[in-house]
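Long-time lurker, first post. I've been practising inverse folding by hand and with some scripts of my own, and I keep getting stuck on stretches where the structure tokens seem ambiguous. Below is the full token string for one chain I'm working on. Before anyone asks, I'm not after the true native sequence, just a reasonable design that respects the backbone. If someone could post their per-position residues I'd love to compare against what I wrote down in my notebook.
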């Protein structure tokens, strides 16, 4: 679609997608190349790293290299190791950029465990089987356990502007980032923030589009990892529709035209060639979006390409 309007304030929400998130990183790199920056970025799970790098202007500098390392690590040492290592490597850059004066608002979604019984199982040896069951429930749409035991909690680097939202700080950034990614079926290391149990954002908030819209943006770019509809969570409880309006923000969805599996990129495994191809596919989609939406850039005061 083509965006129009004046005085645009742009928000970007990136959906989770595990290794398929390489497509979104390509889109964000294209935006950075063309000077398209947002006033607010919303991320969840595998999108935390790419969204954070975009928010600090480092998406292109990192590029597809991160995803090659992530895929290799997933096949060898496991996902907890991959994520903790990436936080160790990129955390200093992100903390330095996200919390500086004048930085865009950065939203990081998680799923907070709300009952003692659920905290015991999610933090213990039963987590893996529970995670597998929650994945099986995707096919039936059964959100019962999630509704009873989890709640979406979206941290914000500008929490003082949004009453009740938990504050994302340099001190808790690493813990919240890891918590956002912890899919129980494949992450062995439990996640805690300030002594409380958390699990992956995707169970409750795989794409924090509503939260980004609530920051007061007028144009909301939503980046998906699949050619299918973009949903709020992995149970497809709410579709985020291109051309719709969320809290006063017009929604623009950018997603692949084809399943990245055809390139060799699936959620938990990917070939090096597939990752490079999917990244370039995302970059091409991002450039195409910018070319089709000059009015949005003009209204936001972004110089001509």
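-- Answer (accepted) --
I ran through it position by position. Result:
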């Amino acid at each position: 679609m083509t965006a129009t309007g004046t005085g645009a304030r742009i928000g970007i929400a990136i959906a989770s997608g595990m290794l398929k998130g390489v497509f979104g990183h390509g889109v964000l790199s294209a935006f950075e190349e063309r000077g398209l920056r947002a006033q607010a970025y919303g991320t969840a799970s595998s999108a935390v790293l790419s969204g954070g790098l975009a928010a600090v202007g480092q998406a292109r500098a990192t590029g597809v290299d991160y995803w090659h390392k992530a895929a290799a690590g997933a096949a060898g040492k496991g996902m907890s190791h991959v994520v903790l290592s990436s936080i160790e490597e990129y955390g200093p850059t992100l903390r330095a950029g996200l919390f500086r004066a004048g930085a865009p608002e950065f939203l990081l979604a998680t799923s907070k465990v709300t009952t003692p019984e659920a905290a015991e199982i999610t933090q213990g040896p039963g987590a893996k089987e529970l995670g597998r069951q929650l994945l099986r429930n995707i096919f039936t749409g059964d959100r019962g356990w999630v509704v009873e035991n989890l709640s979406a909690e979206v941290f914000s680097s500008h929490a003082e502007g949004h009453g009740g939202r938990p504050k994302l700080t340099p001190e808790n950034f690493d813990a919240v980032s890891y918590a956002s990614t912890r899919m129980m079926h494949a992450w062995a290391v439990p996640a805690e923030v300030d002594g409380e149990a958390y699990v992956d954002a995707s169970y409750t908030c795989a794409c924090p589009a509503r939260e980004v819209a609530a920051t007061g943006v007028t144009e909301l770019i939503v980046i998906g990892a699949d050619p299918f509809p973009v949903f709020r969570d992995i149970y497809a409880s709410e579709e985020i529709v291109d051309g719709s309006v969320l809290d006063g923000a017009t929604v623009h969805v950018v997603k692949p035209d084809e399943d990245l599996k055809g390139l060799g990129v699936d959620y938990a495994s990917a070939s090096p060639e597939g990752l490079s191809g999917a990244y370039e596919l995302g970059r091409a989609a991002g450039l195409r979006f910018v070319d089709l939406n000059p009015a949005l850039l003009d209204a936001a005061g972004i110089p001509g390409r």
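A couple of notes from the structure itself: The chain has twelve helices and eleven strands. The first helix runs from residue 22 to 34. Happy to go over any region you disagree with.
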